[in-house]
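Board notes, transcribed. Complex of a protein with EPZ.
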Amino acid sequence: MKGTVSIQGSKNTVLPIIAATLLANGVSVIYNCPHIEDVKVMCKLLECLNVKTTLTNHVLTIDTSNARYACLPEELTCKLRSSVLLLGSMLAKWEKARLGMPGGCAIGMRPIDIHIDGFKAMNVNVDCDEGVLCCASSGLSGCDYTLRYPSVGATENLLIAASGIESVTVLRGVAKEPEVIELCKYLTSMGACIEGIGTDVLIIKGCALLKSVTYTNVYDRIVAGTYLLLATAMNSEVRLTGINDISYLKNVILVCIKLGACIIKINDSIRIASDGFVKAGDFSTGIYPDFPTDLQPVLAAVLMRASGESVITETVFENRFSIAKELSKLDADITVDKNKMIINGKKEIQGHTVKATDLRQGAALVVAGVMARGYTTITDISFIERGYEDIVGDVASLGVDIAYV
Ligand code: EPZ
C-alpha cells in the first residue's frame, strides 16, 4: 500500500459545535466540516428549530437568526447520539426542551443519567414520557456538579448549557478528550469564559448573549487512527495530511509503533511505513489520553495476523465486541471473555461476506478485508458512512482493490 490520504474533519468535534451554534443569534461558519450522514441529520434537527443550514465544499453555514422553539422528533433524534446535545443549547436558550431519545451505535447500554443529573443540578426538571425527554426550568442556574464518570457527551452537554446562561458553573470530573477541548475553545470564542480547559475541573462563566463565530474544524483523529492501523497491518508507505495537532493521536501512534510500524511527523503530515509483520501484545482502551475505544475494533482486525496471542481489554463500553463474530467469518481465531478479546494471530485470513453493525466495527471490517486473502464483501455500509466521508476512495488511493458493488 502506497500513497497519501488527506484526513477529513472530525465528526465528534463538529457535532457538539453544531449544537452550540444555537446559543447565538446569527450566522456561524464551520470550515473543514465532513460531508457525513451524522452531520446531515444534526442539520435536519436544527432545521426543525427554524435554523437554516447549508453544507457545501466542507463549509457548513448555520443561520440561527430566526430560530424558534419546537419539539425534536424521535425519528431524527434516534439516528444519532449527539442529538441529545441539543438539550444543553435549547435549555440555555428557551429554558425548555422536548426531544425523542438519542440513538447512536449499539455498543453498550449508553444511558444518559449523567446528563440528566447535571441538568437537575442546574435547576431543570426532567421527565421521560414514553421515550420522549421533557425538560423545563423556571430559570437555569449555575451549580457545582461532579460527574460520576468523565462522560464525553455529558461534559459537552453541560458545558454548552452553562456557557449560555448568566451564571458561574463548576463541573468536576469532566472528560478531557480533544473534542471537549475544541468545544471549550469554540464556546470561548463565542464569548463564554472557561477556566481549566484540558483539566478535570471546568469553571464556566456563561453569557446569555453569545456571538456567532467562524471555526475551522480539526482533523478526525479516529479516521486518521484507522488509516494508521491499516498501514501498520500491511506492507506500506503511507502519508496522512491535515494532522494539525499530532498530540491528539499520541496513543494511537505509540500502539502502531508497538505493533511494529515506523512513524515520523513532517509539518502537518504523518509518514508511516511498515513491513506488514505485526507484533502481538496486550492492549487496553481508556479515556483520553489512553487508546480510544473507537479504534478497538480496528486494532482487533490488525491483530488477526499478529505474531502470537494478543489481548484487548475494553474499559469504556461494556458491549463493544460485535467485531469478534464478523472477524471469525474471515477465519480469525478470536474469543471474547467478559471485557477482553483474545486474538490468536494467524499467518493468513480468508475473505468472506461480513456485516457492518456499527460505525467503527464497519471501518474495522474494511481494514480486515484489505488484510484478508481474496475478496471480502461488506454489507450494511450505511453504518460506515455515518462517520467516514470516503473510506472507499481513501483506501483505493493507496492501491487497494476496493469498490462499491
Ligand atoms: C462519545 O460518545 C463518542 N461519540 C463516541 O464515539 C466515543 O466512543 C465515546 O465518546 C468515548 O470516547 C460522540 O462524540 C458523538 P460517553 P459518548 O458519554 O459521549 C457511560 C463514534 O464511533 N455513560 O463518554 O456517548 C457510557 O455508557 C462514537 O464516533 C453513562 O453511564 O460517550 C459509556 O460506558 C461511538 N451515563 C461511558 O460512559 C451517561 O450519562 C462513556 O460514554 C453517559 C455515559
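The chain has a mean pLDDT of 97. The pocket of EPZ is lined by residues 12, 15, 81-82, 105, 108-115, 149, 151-154, 175, 177, 179, 293-294, 316-317, 359-360, 387 (CB under 6 Å).
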